[in-house]
Amino acid sequence: MSFLFALLLGGAVGLDATSFPQAMYSRPFVAGALAGLLVGRPLEGAVIGAVLEIFALPVMPFGAAYYPEGGTAAVAGTIAYDWATTAVDRDMLFLAVSLGLLLSHASGYSVRLLRIRNGWAVGRSDGAPLEPAAVERAHRLSMLLDFLRGAAVTAAGTAVIGLVLALAIRAEWRAPVEPVLVLLVAAVAMAGGSLTVFGTVRERVASFGLGAALTALALWLL
């Protein structure tokens, strides 16, 4: 039953990113936390979503730009992690995040394909505009397809990530370096790259200084 709810959540997350209602629950951190609550592991879901969120920060989803879709990836990664593990496993958490990043690019490509389909659906060979009722029908169908796309990406991603995690656990795979340090360095690099998107120069310098101080503290504590 939880997997069915995960598919519904994945569909809703995929729909929220662009189609409706754009309430921001498609952000990876929110989506991962919701998936974690769904399976009773909110902390791990929030961690997976938080890391994917940092990688999504520099992305500006304007117009027809191509961009990774981290929301559905966060849902799939969290559900797969819960399916494969019974306790907190930092190596598997690291693997789930890494595979989630790859899935976000595949999910972003599915958005591009759906947009191509939508453009084809509303086009006419004679160039005449569609009737309002036809536009409304096309819009509703496009929203339904976007929901189904999100659910399908979640299902496929959960299956693939879950299978890889299960095989890794069976082979007793362990990360060659400390997973937390790898994710920390990658997250700091992506967060630093997103500074140019937000605020004035003074605010960017202040943000960079705060990030550097927190990173130094985290490394010292680890």
Annotation, overall tally of beta strands = 0
Mean pLDDT: 82
Structural class: mainly alpha
Work out the helicity level: over 70%
Structural notes for this entry:
The structure is a single chain. The chain has 222 residues and is mainly α. The protein has 2 domains: 174 residues, no CATH class; 45 residues. It contains 8 helices and no strands. Helix 1 crosses helix 6, helix 2 packs antiparallel against helix 3 and helix 3 packs parallel to helix 7. 34% of the residues are buried. The model has no long low-confidence stretch (mean pLDDT 82).
Summarize the entry for a quick read.
The protein has 222 residues and is mainly alpha-helical.
Topology, pairings included?
Elements: H1 2-18, H2 28-39, H3 42-56, H4 70-84, H5 90-122, H6 132-170, H7 179-193, H8 201-221
Helix pairs in contact: 1-2, 1-4, 1-6, 2-3, 2-4, 3-4, 3-5, 3-7, 4-5, 4-6, 5-6, 7-8
Main attributes of the structure:
222 residues; mainly alpha; single chain
